[in-house]
Amino acid sequence: MKAKCFYIFCLAVLLVSCSKREAKESVDALPAIYPDYIGVTVPENICPLDFSVPEAEHLQAIVKNDREESLVVSGADHIEMSVKDWHNLLQGSQELQVEVSAWSKEHPEGAKYKPFKIHIAKDQIDPWIAYRLLPPGYESWNHMGIYQRNIECFDVEPIIENSQNNHGCVNCHSFANYDPKDFTFHARGKNGGTIVMRDGKMKKVDIKAMSNGRHGSYNIWHPSKRYIAFSSNSTHQSFYGQSKNKIEVYDLWSDLIVYDIDNEKVLQDKRFTDSLNLEMFPSFSPDGKWLYFSTAKPVNMPMETDKLHYSIVRVPFDEKTGELGEIDTVYSAYKQGGTAMMPRITPDGRYMFFSLGECGGYNLYHMESDLKMMDLETREMIPAEILNSPRAESFHAWSSNGSWVVYVTKRYDGRYTRLMLAYWDGKRFHKPFLLPQKNPEDNIQLLMAYNVPEFIKAPVVVSKDELAKFFTHE
Predict the structure, then answer these.
(1) Kind of pairing between the strands at 111-112 and 25-26
(2) Phi first, then psi: what are they for 378, rounded to 5°?
(3) CATH of domain 128-469
(4) Do 281 and 294 touch, CB atoms closer than 8 A?
(5) How far, in Å, CA of 335 to CA of 19, rounded?
């Protein structure tokens, strides 16, 4: 009898949650939803785009696809959709229509807003993103880590947290060909070093000992999985008393080196390890034939930040020997202006995605930083304004099929970076959208900043014990 009563109770709850509630007032305006998903283009395999409406005490959303299938969802302070039901709506559809009704003190009997559309691209997205989470206060490293998020749902898993490496900094992660079995990251502090996992086998590498004192910082894998290019940076920071920017991060010196995994040695080209230039943010072309990086003439930092301007260059890369060829300037800061950082090449090799600020070396800390894209065949700029905001955008990456970008933005509060996704259809970018969370308020309440997002095709599988042993022994 108790089981039967429980079944009836559950059925009653289900019917109430799925029943429609009619709002008394129709409003000739779109709803002010957070995050803003109105008119965005999403992949078919994305998780539900849950949202809230400011000041609402009760919400209802009716979501219809172009096959006239619908989903009715209600919530107190936000809309939270079933992952399974959401994916069923998206499967094989080209468009969703969302009708939102909200009950509040201003509209106690409910206000029904104009419906909006969500477009569905045929191109899927890599199901996982790896990123670093850290406090944005610049002085605290007590809790941070590298995490991975399944963007087909809401699952988040740690790859490594700095509780495993004596609470040192963990950073500079990258993957070979979007493969979770081939990745690297750097751990600072006691028993630190560069962890390299190739074909699922991990080892700790002392880059500094192999390269006359140059440690490995920002890195990128060669598509052959034999090489990893590093910039070796002496990074410092200073704080502003009065400025739109809170902090200046800069290098007193930085060099370019290449680690040969097969031969366990670091390759150095004297042109890129002297004191005449700064080099950072290396990036291989997808075919492995070019090595791109940012470079600048050093100035007296941080006093002469306004005089520091990075250009983007590339050099031919010989896969057999690891040797670097002659320099080709792709973006000249002296001719075209600004400071150009972090070149990322599309998987087809056609375009270069990068961030552009006014000056300095780390664009994320400059509010004017925008994302830009160049056609490498014509050297002409491709419009990317839709991705940007009045605040900083940077740290960007391509999906494996070249249809999606992920990047970090400070657009919401100027302090905490959040992850944005956007569709590239081969001709133009579409309106970006905030990485969905099960509860939209998590984007506001999370007191950590996202950093260096990278797409991966599957989750990284590592043993916590195996990782910890690298940092418990000399």
Answers:
(1) parallel
(2) -105, -15
(3) 2.120.10.30
(4) yes
(5) 62
How far is Cα 345 from Cα 172, in angstroms, rounded to an integer?
Answer: 18
Could you check whether 2-121 and 128-469 share the same CATH topology?
Answer: no
Neighbours of 67 (CB within 10 A): 11
Burial of 22 (0-12, 13-18, 19+ CB in 10 A): exposed
Could you tell me the CA-to-CA distances from 274 to 206, 208, 253, 257 in Å, in that order?
21, 16, 9, 11
Q: Does domain 2-121 have CATH number 3.30.420?
A: no
Contacts of 131 (CB under 8 A, 6+ apart): 146, 147, 148, 149, 419, 450, 451, 452, 453, 454
Please state the domain extents for the chain: 2-121, 128-469
In a 3-state reduction of DSSP, which class is residue 68?
coil
Going residue by residue through the chain (474 aa), what tens digit of pLDDT does each one get? 334 333 333 333 333 345 688 999 999 999 999 999 999 999 999 999 999 999 999 999 999 999 999 999 999 989 999 999 999 999 999 999 999 999 999 999 999 999 999 999 999 999 999 999 988 755 555 688 999 999 999 999 999 888 887 777 888 899 999 999 999 998 887 778 899 999 999 999 999 888 887 888 899 999 999 999 999 988 888 776 556 677 788 889 999 999 999 999 999 999 999 999 999 999 999 999 999 999 999 999 999 999 999 999 999 999 999 999 999 999 999 999 999 999 999 999 999 999 999 999 999 889 999 999 999 999 999 999 999 999 999 999 999 999 999 999 999 999 899 999 999 999 999 999 999 999 999 988 898 999 999 999 999 998 888 888 888 765
**pTM, to two decimals:** 0.92
Taking the CA atoms of 455, 426, 344 and 413 in sequence, report the sign of the dihedral they define. Answer: negative
Query: Rounded to whole angstroms, how far apart are CA atoms 259 and 266?
Result: 4
